[in-house]
Amino acid sequence: MRHTTIEGSKMDPAAIQSALREHKLDGWLFYDHHNRDPLAYRILGIPGGHITRRWYYFIPAQGEPKKLVHRIESHKLDYLPGPKDQYSSWQELESKLKSLLTGATKIAMQYSPNNAIMYVSLVDAGTVELLRSLGKEIVTSADLVSHFEAVLTEAQIATHYEAQRKLDAILEAGWREISTRVAAGGTDEFSMVQFLANAIEREGMITEFGPNVSVGPNAADSHYQPTSTTSKPIRSGDFLLIDIWSKLAEDPTAVWYDITWTAVINRAPTQREQHIFTTVRNARDAAISRIRQAFASNTPIAGYEADDASREVIHKAGLADWFTHRTGHNIATELHGNGAHLDNLETHDTRLILPNTCFSVEPGLYFPGEFGVRSEVNMITRPGIAEVTGRIQTELLRL
To answer: What's the domain count of the chain?
Structure first.
């Protein structure tokens, strides 16, 4: 099992071939045109650039990898090991592609049946049709991608924990700053976004955009983003949600930390707010428990199964219609990484949650015009254990 690949790093064919044999596949066919498949470039460790002709790179479960490139762009795969063949006409392409795959039948590609896992569904239908016409069985590379994109090294896991320590402290300082500003007359969403973003930068981290500071009804929009012109005031008596994420700025292999907390300002929660928060918290904890149990017993668990555990709690509470997104997403060098998501709503994610991967657990309930509650933590898995990496909110904060 190979660890996360950063573009430009050296590919390890032996590791890929070992994974192919483990999955009982004859090979993995990488294909691209016009940089349509960023996963291919990341996993193979090659640059993209100006790609105007189709290229193919086949890694068999046994034997030497092979290349097929257009004569006009014959150098595109020179970074990779294996012999190179070339084509010009479409007839020559089809003939040489058939030769490239001689002896292989069950072949993985960046494809997903029915586009079920669209994150890896990058090969066009026509290419799949062509390969099927050659007698090939095309299967999804989704779990292979997880092996090479989502599995983290020890050094990467350490970057996550460093971001966690820093960001937990920044959020705590943010809550205190809100209390101070409200007591002095008030503040607003965008001002607090700037406060938190500035603190992230001072700590040597990046956030790309955000954080998200949402008051009252704005918290019912799970992807709300305040701006200087749309920002709402934050006052005593308000309900508040903060979604905040960051990673170390100087390390391209660093892993993100991503959390969401909720609070009420200068008052006790209403009965409805408390009920919604408790339901969301219990749904979050159900998914955490299901994942922990699976890893403790060495039982494989797919992303959709963890989502089911969380969603069942909300369904039993009669609130399923307001849980409108997946339970969690993979986290790696990208905030939404290429491993298993905790999802049986937006997709039926059958990818396995692998050891040494990171992901969020973040169920939410959103009531337009009222408020929304999301409680988000991150988990990291190890062989035999799965753990939450930061602080866990157990009650609505009272500022």
So the answer is: 2
Cβ neighbours for 308, distance < 8 A, ≥ 6 positions apart: 344
pLDDT of 153 over the 90 cut: yes
Q: What is the CB neighbour count within 10 angstroms for residue 261?
A: 21
What integer is the mean pLDDT of 380-384?
A: 97
Asked if residue 17 and residue 89 are part of one domain, the reply reads yes
pLDDT average, residue stretch 285-312: 98
> Of 149, 173, 199, at which residue does a domain stop?
149
> 5 lies in a domain?
no
**Which is nearest to 107 in space by CA: 46, 66, 48, 152?**
66
* Average pLDDT along the chain: 96
Q: Coil, strand or helix: which one is 261?
A: strand
Domain boundary pick from 149, 175, 194:
149
Confidence (pLDDT) at 9:
59
Tell me if residue 195 falls in helix, strand or coil: helix
Query: Is this structure's pTM higher than 0.90?
Result: yes
Which tokens belong to 382?
A: 């190890």
List, in sequence order, the alpha helices (H) in the chain: 13-22, 38-44, 90-100, 125-133, 142-149, 154-183, 189-202, 271-296, 303-316
- Classify residue 3: in a domain, yes or no: no
Closest alpha carbon to 381 in 300, 261, 282? 300
Place of tokens 């460093």: 162
- For the record, the structure tokens of 89 come out as 């006409």
How far lies 388's CA from each of 52, 101, 242, 266, 290, in Å?
A: 45, 44, 19, 30, 13
Q: Which residues form the domain of 46?
A: 13-149
In tens, the pLDDT along 23-80 reads 999 999 999 999 999 999 999 999 989 999 999 999 999 999 999 999 999 999 999 9
Per-residue pLDDT tens digits for 245-257: 999 999 999 999 9
Q: What is the number of helices (H) and of strands (E) in the chain?
A: 9, 19
Q: What are the tokens at 336?
A: 């939404």
* Nearest Cα residue to 374 out of 383, 382, 385, 365: 365
**% pLDDT > 90, the chain:** 95
Contact assessment for residue 267 and residue 305, using Cβ atoms and an 8 Å cutoff: no
Q: Looking at the structure, tell me whether residues 142 and 162 fall in a common domain.
A: no
